[in-house]
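Hey L., structure's done. Input below.
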Amino acid sequence: MRLKAPFPPSTYIEHNPAMYNTIKGLQEWEVLGARCSACGRIGWLNKDAVLARWGDQYLMNLRSRFRCDCGNRTDNVVLIGRLPQ
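Output:
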C-alpha cells in the first residue's frame, strides 16, 4: 500500500504538538500530511497506509518518522488537511 494520498486537500493547518490527537482520531474528511523543515516540500499521506505501517500513533510522534525526498527526517511539521465538501 502506498503512503502517498491520491489527491491533496483544499486547505490545511499545522498540527499543534500540544494536542494529543491520534491518526484514528482524525475525521474521514481530514488528510494527514507533512512539511519538510529543510526544503519546505509538502507531502500528503494515505492514513490507512500510515496506520498499517506504524499503528495508531500520536500525530506529534510522526514528525520523526516522515522522511522527505531530500533525506531530512528531523523537525518535520505534521499537517492536517480538509477535503473539499
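Strands lie at 11-14, 30-35, 42-45, 77-82. Residues 47-54 form the longest helix (8 residues).

-- N.
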